[in-house]
Structures are given as structure tokens and as C-alpha cells.
Amino acid sequence: MPVELAWRGAELGLLDELLTAARRGEGRAALVTGSPGTGKSALLRGLAERAGAAGALVLDASASPAETDLPLGVVGQLLSGAGPDALPPPSAPPDVLHAALRDHAAGAPVVALVDDAHHMDEASARCLLYVCGRLTGTPVLLVLAGRPRPPAAGPLPLAELLRHPRCTPVPLTVLDEDAVVGFLASPGGGALDGATARRLAPDWHRFTGGNPRLLHGLLEDHRACEPVRPSRPVAGTAFRRAVTTCLHGAGAPVASVARALAVLAGTATLTLLAHLVELPERAVAACLEELDAAGLLDGGRLRHEGVRAAVLEELSAEESTGLHTAAARTLYENGAEPGPVARHLVAARASGGRPDGPAWAVPLLAEAARHALGRGGARQAAEFLRTAHRAGGEEAGGLLPLLARAEWEADPASVVRHLPALERELAAGRPDAEDAAGLLLWHGRPAGADTAAAGYVYPCLRAGEEPHGPGPEDMDEHAERVLESVVHDHAPPGSVAAVLCALLHAGETGRAGRWCALTAGADQARAATPARRAVAVAAAAVVHARTGAYDAAARYAGRALSLLSPDAWGVAVGMPLAAAVLAATRRGAYEEAAARLRVPVPAAMFRTRAGLHYLLARGHYQLAVDRPRAALGDFHACRDLLARWRLEPRGALDWRTPAAGALRALPAGREADADPIAQLTRAERRVAVLAAGGSTNRAIAARLYVTTSTVEQHLTRIYRKLGVASRTELAALMAARPS
After folding, report:
1. Angle at 551 between CA 596 and CA 537, to 5 degrees
2. 47-58: per-residue pLDDT in tens?
3. FRET label pair with 541: which of 155, 274, 394, 634, CA 20 to 30 Å apart?
4. Same domain, 211 and 76
5. Would you list the DSSP string of 129-184?
6. Residue 165 half-sphere exposure toward CB, CA atoms < 13 A
7. Do 74 and 195 belong to one domain?
């Protein structure tokens, strides 16, 4: 027995019995049936070798779809093996083959083999049908190989031949797991040792469905991985080629259904498949049965992604576009959810499809994107929106803020290219202006963002105005709600502006302990997008640094900075950096703090609250490494910004205490240079001391023997030089002077 047929011993044994009967003069016929790849051709080759070795005359032919209209094409192939004089004319009667076989059988048994009999021409089928009815008493074995079902559109003689009662059925099915063990262990298969064959067989059987052709392809790819043979199956070039060969052998309708199944994937139903391939449901069901019999399906779906890729890889770009477009239309017309329809519209565009499409495409893509964003699928939402945006039209143009928001969720740095267009959107008063404003705030372009969030993030926008907006308690509650939605993914968070406000407020909340509990485990949060995860972890770093949990703060800050690049963080980068620098400084990890301070930050950051926290953290580091003058510069820069923006220097923004420490750390004799009061004139200094002590302008004027107007002028110059805005701030500054 040929080694490649070691796992077909039973079927070859049955054919041997028929051959033995034919050699005794008891003519026989057999019909070998099986799905593509099950080994019909190999079985015929094995029989031909054995018959030839036993002295029989072997005549063989292979039918072809290209010759179905060629009269007696198969008969001509059979008789060509007996010499050119035996070839029949095209108009030969049905008994021509029977007469020729009977003549040749006078000298030796004759074995006539016809592969792919389901493609046979009508005249040859008529001749073979004639032979089947007259085998008795002749030493002839006729073996046909073909599909399990005769073609529905084939000629009547062929259908009768493939169902002839005198043809012994020899059905070939896919191999079971035990047979796969035999394949892997046999010399014609993997030639593996028994233990290895038994270990690999379950996965190989699941991967191929037991189809011998797919097993051979998988084996070829397995060997191509030498010298390292993977323990798991690899769907390489040979495997994919085996899949496409099976599809070609199954015929165009089956291949068409397989491609439709590959494209529709999890949304496929019998009705949708029938609509997509434009065949009756019963015809589609028959094709699915053929695919299942070939081992290509598992539970009504293509067996795995390797099979799906192989089914689709021969499609041209135009064919792929057409198939995905048709799939989108089919799903849409049958009431499918927006997401699956949108995925096909995206795939059609990716395959080179035209930018325009049906009128319903753009609104459907937008709806699918909103659903995806609600589930945390930012990257998919961005794909949908890019496809809609490229489609053009006024409606597509209005989707830019939503597209930019989706891209921000996945990678905030990618939004930079949209910023000029977002500014135009904001100026035009588009409906999604809030998202546009938030993205502009994040990336340091607050111009035109006339919102409460803009005033909170960029206090410079409200410089000179009376403080307004939510109070500290209201801000705590609002920021906590936003942050909770980010950390725990209970619901989609607010706009980018709201997320940014929540992150900045993490450094100033009066309920830091509560926020620590809220952000506990933020590095393992379920937040679905990179931006949300980064914000959640950065907030955790900030509030842990505030409560003195510096080890946790360092861990969270490192995670936050690894999730997004500095460019992606925009102006918000100051928050995780401030937490990282402060945590490292307090732990004595000065080199780590210095490394964090080398991270580039945008200039616009120093117009935001994040800049204040960054300056204070850097000042603490400078003071810890014995650079009191540099530290004092950072603390006073924070003081000046707070005064200019009319913000109270309290809580985490209290610069006075560390500034006093920096003043005390200055070398002897240098305090005057570092004392901000030293820059005042003598007259101004006298006014400043009295004003800080609580004296009124009139009292100061009486004490110094000057007019009230002169005192007011002095105070104006004092406030400007010192960067303070009130007597309270002046008193605090005076209190921080070196003793």
C-alpha cells in the first residue's frame, strides 16, 4: 500500500476486492465520492499502481469543466491509452467504449479510471452509462471519482451514471482524530514519533477538520518553520493554498458562498448569505453542507481566521470592494445594527473603493461611531468617522469634532493635525463645539474657547476678572463624578474639557483622601481607551503625592507617562510630571526626579493650573538638591502667576512655606538679594511694611507725612513689582521673608 494511503486502508481494500472480482471475469463498477481534499485522486492513483503491478491494463481520464461541451472528451482520454487507432470519432455511438473495453479485456483485465466525473461531457457519460449496464461477464473494473452529489444542472445521463445501482459506493470523508494520529505518524505524513503525533493530533484535527489536503498543507508549513517546529498549527502559504484548491474543486457556487461567509463572519445567516450571493436558500444550504463535509466549517462558520484569510486572499481589490459594499447594503436592508454595516463600509473603502456611497452611509457611520465610543471602542469609532469624513459632503464635514474626540481617546497626539480645523469649527458655532473646545484646551490653544472649563484650566483667560464659576465643593463633586466614570468605566465620561478639569482638580481637591480611595487600583482600571487609562492613573499619582503616599504616587506617575507620550499629554503633562518629580524628591531619588524634569513640556502649560503644580514640584526638587536660589525662582514664579490670576495660594498651591525654607537655605549675606522686598525703594518698602501690618491708606499717609494719593501710587508700584494683588498676599509675602 502506498504510504500516502496508509489512512485509507479500508477504502483501498474494498477496491482491491472489486479488482479481484474483475480479474475473475466478474466486471465491477465503483463510485468514489468525497468533498474536495479528501483524497479521491490519490486513491485512484494508488489503485492504478496496484492494478498495473497485477498485470491489468489501466486506462485513465480526468474530466474538466473546460471540456464539458467536448463530445466524448473523457472517452477519448480513456482510449488514448490503448493507442491512437482506438480513438473514437465525436459522433461515435454509445457502445463504442464498451466494444473497445471488451476487445482489450480479451488479453488482460482492464481498469478504467475517471477522476472528477461530475465534470464529464454528456456523450462520455452516455457511453459509461452503457458500459455500467453491461459489465457482467467481462474482466473490467470501472471506477469513477466525483463529488457526493451530482451537479444539479448536469445532463441526465451523468446524473444516472453517478447514481447507478451497479456502482459500488466508496465514500471518502474527512479523517477523525485517530486517523490524524496515523497521518502524523506515517512515513507519507509527518513521520513523527507516536507520542508527538498523539500530542499534536487534537489541535491539527481542529485546525483542518481532518481534511487530508489541508493536513498536507499544514504539514508543509510546519516543516518550513525548521529548525523550530511550533507546537501550535501555523496557517502558512501551503495551508492557504490547500484551502483555495479545495474551493476551486468545489465549484464556483460553493466558493462564492464561502467568500460571503468569510465577509459576513459572525453576522452570517442563511437568509443573508442567500441575498448576498443571489442564490436560493436551498442552494446556499447545499453549498454550506459541501463546505462542512470538506472540513472548512466548524459550527456553521469558517473554521478559523486562517481559513477565512485563505478564502478571501484571491479576491482582487475591485472584487473585495464589491463584496464588502454588497455586504453592507445587504445588512442595512435587513435591519442589522450600525456597527457591522459600518465595518463593511470601512473595509470597502480600505480595499480601494470610491469615496462616495449610498446616501445612508455617512449618518450610519456616525451612529456606529457614537455606539463604539460609548463602549470604549475609540479606534473603531475613529475608523468609522474617517471613512465618513472622506466621503465628503456637508454632513460629513460636521463630524470633525467627533472624529477628533475618538482619535484623542486612542492617541491624543494624533489630534494635533485637526487643531486649525477645530478652531474654525468652534468659531462657526458647530453643534459639537464642546468637544472641539476641550481638544483645543488640551493642546494649548484656548483662544475662542469661551467656556467655564477654559477659565478653570487657563486662569490667564480670566485675569483681572472677579472670580466666578463653581465653588470648591461643587468642583469637588463634579470632578469626582467625571473621574469615577473614567476610572471605573461606569459610563462614558464628559467632554475632553471635563476630563482635563478633573485631572487638574486632582491636585487641588480638599478631599484628597477620598480621591485616593476613588483611584485605588487605577493602573488596573477597566477604562477602555489609552487616554482614559492615562488620565485615571495620572489622577491617582497626583492625589497619592498629596497625601504623602510617595511610593504609590511614583508607580502611578510612571504608568501614566508610559501610556501617553509627552506630546500626547499636551498641557496636562504637568500633572503626572509634577507628581513624579515630587514623589521622587521625597523618596530621595534625585536622579529619577532630574530625569523627569528633562521631559519636554509645552510653553502653553505655564498658562494653566498644571504649570503651577509643575513649578512647585520643581522648586521642591531644587531645594532638596541644595539649589535654594533656583528653588526660590520657581516658588516666586508660582506666586506671581497666582497673584496675576487672582487665585488663593492654599493647599497644594501654597508656595509660601517652601519659599521661606529656600530663603533660609540661602548662603549668609545673600538673603537680601533673594528677598523680593529688596527690589522696592526705601519709601515703597516703608509703605509695604505698614500695609502688610494692616494699616489703612489714610493711616499710612498720616504716619509717613504724605498724601493718601501718594500711598495709593506706592501701593500700585509695590503690587506690580511683587506680583501680588491684595494686602492679604502682600502680608503673606512679607511673612515669608528671611528673618
Report:
1. 70
2. 999 999 999 999
3. 634
4. no
5. HHHHTT-TTS-EEEEEEE-SS--TTS-HHHHHHHT-TTEEEEEE----HHHHHHHH
6. 0
7. no
